[in-house]
Amino acid sequence: MILRRLTIILLLTTLADSATNLDTNISQDGTVLLSSNIQPVHYDVHLKTYLPGFAWEADTRNLTFEGEVVITADVIEATDRIILHVDSLNVFDADVKTNDPNINITKWEVTPQWQSLTLHLSQVMEPQEGIAFLLKFRGKLRDDGDFSGFYLTRSYKSNGDEVLNAVTQFDPNTTRSLIPCFDEPGFKTTWQLALEYPVGSVGLTNGIEMKTVEINGEWATTQYHITEKMSPDQLAVFVGNVQYKEAFVNQGVRIRIFADPENLEKVDFALNVSYTTIKGFEEKFGINYQMQNLDFLAVRDFKVGATKTRGLIVHRSSPPKVKKMHSIMTPLMPKYPDLNDSPLEKFLESLTTRTLNSKIARFAFLWTRQAGLPTVIVSKTGSDKIEIKQEIVTKSCLHPDGCFPRWDIPIWYHDADSSNTKLTWLLYNLKSIQLNSSIPLIINADSNGLYKVLYTDELYEEIGEQLKKFSKIYSPSTKYRLLTDASEQVWKRNKNASSFLPMIEALIDDDNEHVRRAAKKLLAFASRIATIQLEPENPVVQGYEDLLVKYFSSTPSFANFSGSATFLDVFGSEFDTQEILISILIDKNFDQMLERLVYWQKTETDPKILEIIGKLLDDLKPSNNLIFKIGPAEKQEEWRLPTKVFPIDYNLELTTYLPGYGYKEDEKTLKFHGAVDIKAHVVEATDRIVLNADSLEIQDILIDTVVDPIYSLISFISIFKKNVTITRWQLSSKLQFLTIYLSKTIEPKSTINFTILYEGKIREDLKGYYLTRTSDNSKTLNAVTQFESTAARFMVPCFDEPEFKATWKVKLIHPDGTVALSNGIEMESGPTGDTGFTYTEFARTVKMSSYLLAVFVGDVQYKETVTDRGVRIRVYADPQKIDMVDYALNVSRVTVEGFEKQFGIEYPMEKIDFVAVEDFAFGAMENWGLIIHASSYILGKSKNVLSTVIHELAHQWFGNLVTMKFWDNLWLNEGFASYMTPYGYTFIDPEADRDFSQTSDQEYGLNGESEPSTSITKYVRKDDGDITNTGLIYSKGSSFIRMIEHIMGADNFNKAIRYYLNNHQYQNVVAYDLYEAFERFMPNGTVGPNGKPFNLVEFAKCWTHQSGYPTIQVQSIDNSSIQLTQHRRLYKNVTTFKEEDVCGHKWDVPIWYQVPGSDTVDLAWLGRNDENLVLNVTGPVVINANSNGYYRVLYSNQFYELLSTEFQERGKTQFLSDSSKIRLLNDIMNFIGEIDAKSILPIVETLANDDNLKIRQRAEKTLRKLKNQTGHSFDTDMTKPLFEKCSLNESFDECSSKIETVIMDEFCRKVRSDPSQENVTRYLLNWLNVEERLEYQSYFLKALSCADSGTLDRLLLAEYRELRKRVNFYMGMERNKVKMPAKQSREFLMFEHDV
Ligand SMILES: [Zn+2]
To answer: Which among 462, 788, 918, 952 is annotated as catalytic?
Structure first.
């Protein structure tokens, strides 16, 4: 801020000095303020946009635009120059026309720092003269994530392909970046635009289009109607791929809603609303809407909710979502939520003016901007009085800027005992309205309004009785809507089933067929609720039963479900009732129904049927499943937080009394003090707030405000705050709950602000907020956090489960001389009033789970880099180790750029810090923006550093952006982070073999399961609240994901992943959400077991909910066929399986196989219910080709012999991928003792000569094991000839080519036992010095750790000084390993393994 102001002063000084008669001022932001001697009147603009992806072939002009503008202006005061605004444009031609032909432009100049363009005229223009001047210019479409000016916005086709569109968003003073103009709001002019755009795209601007000309089939030019007078920032331009639907209001106002083609179906709702209600407004106010057209445009990347540009209203849409509610403009969560400055609220404020147009705009805005429909709640307030209010639905959208769920609602109702319809308004800012009536009123008469109505039980009964008597006076639409709304309410709300009976009785025999069906539907739903709510003998239940028998005597039986029965066979063609019947059936057999529906979805072709099936499947999802909602409540563990209150934002101030720095130590030393303000939403009525806290001393809790639901989103209206106090609070150490009891019950949808003051002790057990040594063990200490899974509650009272995402604003107060870090970028820092303390404030985070919060205070330094997009990356380490961070720094920059590209989602915060700490329970922790590493996992250059850094960065998307709902699905985080790590290798080294790296993970998992383990969806809660999962969530999770990749193909898989991340960002997911994304991109015709359509949910069940894996046994039947069977093998020393068994220890196994010599890998299925799989192949075949599958293969001896012959004949030829070879070796290794050694020997020996070091190594190990077990003699001590044959100045590769095999373990033995230690040690140091490949370096280092330390030190000092730091660090790390906790389930374990 200070810097900026200085610049302005300097500029002003320069101006004054130059003493020209420049009629210019400099505005606050340093740009030119125009003089008033020229007044623009009109702009004629021709603008051509070179947008790729359409008819023209992109060339050097791609992603640019060029234009001509003719500006007509009046001269107000005499002048010899014209100054106007321009920014980032190349003005390449200028011309002027006046009445005096002698006047021309002598020169023009652009002054970038003032954003000005000065045209010098050959002579002075006098007042009253008219002038027109022409400018030609070029510019670039912006793509810097700022969503400002004329910029690129992206939409996605259903196949995931990206489509580029260009749209404007003119913040004040940015129109000048599109067109040179007088860019101040005071200069209002008319505008006439012609847009030239690629054929295939659509051009839109403020005026209605007049005519379009097409040239060469490549470019089209549309001329638009002249606008009314407006300021430059009201200009809007769009070019891109959209379609529209339109409607005309009586008087001819055209309304169009544009959206990308994929979302076009969703615009009907907005269109209807705009239409119905502009009409309504015209009638109500008796004035017609003034403009010819009103276009709404839904754009995905848009920084505010909507603009009010005239005639063309641009909205932010969402990525396509599976939403049942039809609305186009589901808001996308903003990336930088700023709670204090909601653009939405500001916009609403600006709309609340008194003109008709703005009322319509407000109305249209409210209806089109938000997802969902309003629900109108009707209740009785007296014998002939009802109250009508709107329900504010916030549960699915907790962010205050994310949604604004209120509407201006036209309330249509029938007048008492006549069929006249009346209209009144429930405006968005009214709490409620009252209506008087002697009869029960039915709201939303004739179904005019697009909203739901919910009555009280009492009113439903009264309406039912009214309908029994006077059914005829209500229109069929009225009755239909009443019943349909009721059907939904009866499901979703806890309504009393008996209250619907009169209504059903009154209408089930109605004259109108649609009404009859709606009544039947309500009957089906209400009767189910009745059986749940009431005793079987209850007369209401009986009443429903009677009606059911009468109206549903033809309920289909389950027998019809099987075999080839089609949807129509089972349910007939009455589409309305099918839904009802199915919902009754779902109740009785969920699994069977689900399976059948999935089958039909794949096989049916009738779009109508597919729509019904789609809707039903949507309902069956766990999250929406009615059965789950209505059936007996899921047993909730007592230590889980209630879901009545959800946090929105935390404001944390934390003071850390860390000794060893500037302040004077006292009794507060080694403690921390906290004050946290929490803003939360009340979702269900409650008289208490329950959150997590443990080992903290709560000093005080204050309620700041409780705001009524209707006003809850307008935080500044504090007069509506309620008088609520805290009666007491209680800490439960068993449940780790802090329960705050309130003086009264808070209504749902209220907002509550409260503050907790507390104190805690910095821990020493590597959990929560704890002490860590600095690396030289000096007196100074650092404090750092490790919260996953449940230790945030040790530092700050919070809603400490992943589902409770919120933003965090953190301020740290820390001893002078320490560095303080948190998730957000540092904003402000300075001394506090307290001597010896500094404060540092950090930017508010994005919405995230509490386990990702992080804090560090201590003595560190950093090195820094910046990604190409400007994300700042720093690695912090102890000052004496700061030179060892370079490798991690480089890896992280490349990886962030790589992942951004791969996922199509930018890293959403300004910075990523890594911190190396000495005492850390895991390898690293992915806290959003502040990643903490054990120092050996980030310092220096090693495979561990590489893989850990990439893994943690992958979590920034998988885990941080999209988070599991609870810890049972932690495998989604870890499986994906592990799966993505080898992609990271390819960013660093494009040659890296991703598949081969992934087989290493796979083998680790398979080995891990040779002992009893649990499924990857199980978790255990420890006494201190920590939740642990099996370590297999990494390797098995990753291997499972990889199988899906190979089933659906890499392209489809990547599209699904992008969709999944986009669709669930800032939200929580269950595994089903992932499957839904995969299903969406699963190629048509993907087949699963038994030739049936592939069912991913079924496939996943056995792999994720069962422990263990199948072993596939292979044997020949005859010359042209082989037989495969699956078995689960028992663990070592275990005789029976004890753990869960959801699929009878069987799996649906995708069998990938390849005939040696062939390039293709084929896929067949061995289903979990199949006895065997017969493959018709001649000759040997390799099962589990490319090691795609998470299983082992055991061939018969005879078959191994066949393979051996094949291997011997082919020798080293590359007939199998490296992944296939390593799989074969790993499996052989695992089955040694069961296989006849002779039958496998040729295979192993051939592979011991492979080009790939890891394969050679593995083959050597296998040979050694064979030797041990069979007494067979093989010379495996291959290092001896190596050292004899090589000379000291040869590289490792040169040496190793002279011998047959190399095993690194042998090096170690050799180094230890060799009498001339020095020579061997020197070989290794020589190689280390020149070796580029990381894994080779690791081997040499490992071997060096076996060397005599005296010899090694001497050589390092005398001849290899440049290697000293690296070698010593590695040795230190080796020693440190012992100090690490022996067994951990998190990031620690996974990096310790290798093939
Ligand atoms: Zn991880």
So the answer is: 952
